[in-house]
Amino acid sequence: MAAVEWSDALSIGIPQTDEEHRQLVEILNELDDAKRTGKGTRIMGDVLTRLIEYTVSHFESEEQLMEESGYPGFELHRKQHLQLVKKVGRFRDQFYGGGRRITKEMMEFLKYWLTNHILADDMAFGKFHTGRTADGSAPASEPVTSDA
User: What is the pTM of this model?
Assistant: First the structure.
């Protein structure tokens, strides 16, 4: 069973970002599988490193899109990304420096952060970027005015 199942509920409506999120979910699930099945620490370390690298790459892509679109929540969103990168870096350091194992705390944090960040923060940006309203529908068009 996967740690996080991708579904349309996680789609924010921006194809490139949704594809990146799917890939992040796959890497997280690979990490969880390595933990659950007792695969070697080398595999888990490689997957954890890939997760960190891919997350950084994804954040750069997402932040560029936010900046280009004039997203008002950009600075707060960037701070959230930086906090995650630092936290996962600490997990990586724990893995390589201490027990060389992925802890339950680490997996729960990553699953929680990934899904909740997508469902709340990224979804808000997706709605802003695509012009959707809070209920997911397209915004009403502006009324047409006449100069006559």
Answer: 0.78
